[in-house]
Please model this.
Amino acid sequence: MTSDADVAGTYEALLAHALSLPEAWLDHPWGETCVKVKKKVFVFLRHAEEPDQLHLTAKLPASGHGLLKKPWAEPTGYGLGKHGWVSLRLAVGELLTREDLEDLIEESYQAVAPKRLARLLDPDDD
Model:
């Protein structure tokens, strides 16, 4: 089982990664921790309810369909699931690596960010 320290460290690293993306900023609507680009949320992160779990919610148009086949993934509530949002409940390090999770955060960023910002993450799109 993953320790709470591992989960907290991964949470902090993922939050820092999300905030490192162009024009990303931290917000706390509805008491949730999320990162936005411009006025749009691209990732929700949480680890407090279950000490050994990390929750990540993101818009995943490319990988979401495959992830939804996993028992630890579900369409996001409030009607967001029908628009490509997926919620993951993970024991850190057991199911996806931190790098995998960073890739999902970047996929969501690119799905939500204005095109001029999203292109900054894709050097092959010049």
About this structure: Helices lie at 4-19, 64-67, 98-112, 115-118. Strands lie at 24-27, 33-37, 40-46, 54-59, 73-75, 85-90. The first strand starts at residue 24 and ends at 27.
